[in-house]
Amino acid sequence: MFSSKLKIFLFWCIACGIAMISPAIAITSQESLAKIDNFLNQGNYQEAYQFAENLSKQAIGDQSFDMLFGRAALAAGKPDVAFFAFDRVIINNPSNDRARFLLAEASYELKMYDRAKTEIQLLISGAHPSVLSSELKELSDKINQDYSEENKSYYIYGRMLFGYDNNASSNTDEDYVKYLDLINFDVNQYTNDQVSDLYSRLRELNGNPKSVYLYPQIGIGGTHTLTSNSKFNLLWNANVSHKEYTEVNGFDASQANLSLGMDYQLNPLYLLNGTFYYQEYMLNGKRYREAPIAAVSLSRVLNSHNNLKIYTNGGIFAYPNNRTSDVYMGLGGLEWLYYDDRNMLVTQTFYGRNQPRGVGAKYYGNDYYGVDIAATRNITQEISVTVGGIYQRSLYDVKQFTDSPRRKDSYRQVTTGVYYHFHPKYTWYVLGAYTNNSSNVFIYKYDRFETWTGISFEF
Questions:
Q1: Cα–Cα distance measured from residue 199 to residue 175, given in angstroms and rounded to the nearest whole number
Q2: What is the CATH architecture assignment of 153-458?
Q3: Which of 176, 169, 181, 106 has its CA nearest to residue 143?
Q4: Reported confidence tier of residue 217, pLDDT bands at 50, 70, 90
Q5: Which of 313, 255, 261, 314 has the alpha carbon at shortest distance from 279?
Q6: Are the CB atoms for 11 and 2 separated by under 8 Å?
Q7: Is there a contact between 393 and 412 (Cβ–Cβ < 8 Å)?
Q8: pLDDT over 90 (residue 423)
């Protein structure tokens, strides 16, 4: 549209204009910073905060401003605003120990003791000339005292989620029973040919049933510490949820989970964890359970940004009524965690085995293995994005149906999401997932797309 010479001339004009107005902006900025600083030095904390808040839309992200803004917010009794301000400073300048100390103070005021302890530990392990040792000790003692008050801490969390599913009864292994339950079909009264024909007819009649749903969840968790310096942490968590589909008649699910665990710090590098997990859920009035599942993991800190974990678990999955036999599930794998101020990457490799117990429907067990990768990027302090993927292969021992080949499955899932942390304890998010199960047995092939949005909280 424009000639090259005209483009160069316009660029030169813009550059000159920016150069001419930059000193004025800098002077105004310095005057504003000095005014906030004076308010703070005079003890006029509310005035300092109000003045800084009026400038925040234009000045937020500037390290000098964020430091003063955070100090004013903390002094004015607004630790949530201070938390974000100091965290922005650390994201841009991780070596700013004063900001890290003040972030620990804001976290403490918000009763986010784990975050506060983490920041204090980072300061203690490194150089901190901008933080007095007496200040550090005083804050550390306060955090430890409150953290270990009555030797326990707990939190309540939940979410209210609204979603869309384009294939609400897609054929996962659990849906082998789910489809039959939808029409009260007893697999033990029919031959394999009739069962196979039933699946074909269900696919033809139902296709991919689409549905929107409401999915509320609430839970409570906590940590029990024997003493403030104990190597043991006892962990517990319980939650309940209900998924109500609106466009599939009579199709809903409720779920309850309970987990108990223990962390033991073998030494500064190694952490041993053991967990007991129990789950029950209802599908169309039929009760399923997974009990018990026991898991053990050993983690090693490689350096300040890396963690390596070996994990294994096993449990029993029990189908409802007389649908099929109980199934023993075993799993083991390796996890590598990398993180820095803006990014987190988790990679898992795993191998598992499902083996039936007792007699029931003709299910002969299967081996499966795969990889799971998830990445998170903090765009700003308030906004983060996630991308993840799972690839899994499954191979069944023998033919499940006499008139079909030996079953082989390839499971793939891709997820992505955006999180908006508009408060340290509240998050709004939008997520999406695409799932594809490719199988050499027709009835186990499916595609699924699910998307949802909601708000989660924790306090």
A1: 11
A2: Beta Barrel (2.40)
A3: 106
A4: very high
A5: 255
A6: no
A7: no
A8: no
Distance CA 434, CA 248 (A): 20
3-class secondary-structure state, position 251: coil
Domain edges within the chain: 27-152, 153-458
> For residue range 390-419, what is the model confidence (pLDDT) as tens digits?
999 998 887 766 666 788 899 999 999 999
Phi, psi of 181 (to 5 degrees): -65, -30
> H-helix or E-strand containing 303?
strand 286-303
Give the DSSP letter string of 205-243: HH-S--EEEEEEEEEEEEEEESSTT-SEEEEEEEEEEEE
Query: Is the distance from CB of 138 to CB of 101 less than 8 angstroms?
Result: no
- CATH number for the segment(s) 27-152: 1.25.40.10
Helix/strand/coil for 134: helix
What is the DSSP track for 388-402? Answer: EEEEEEEEESS-SST
Q: How far apart are CA 367 and CA 410, in angstroms?
A: 12
Between the alpha carbon of residue 228 and those of residues 117, 140, 236, the distances in Å are 11, 11, 18
Task: Tell me the CA distances in angstroms from 310 to 130, 272, 276, 348, 371, one per residue in order.
Answer: 39, 10, 17, 10, 14
Return the SS3 of 382.
coil
Angle between helix 133-147 and helix 113-125 axes, rounded to 10 deg: 150
Q: What is the pTM of this model?
A: 0.62
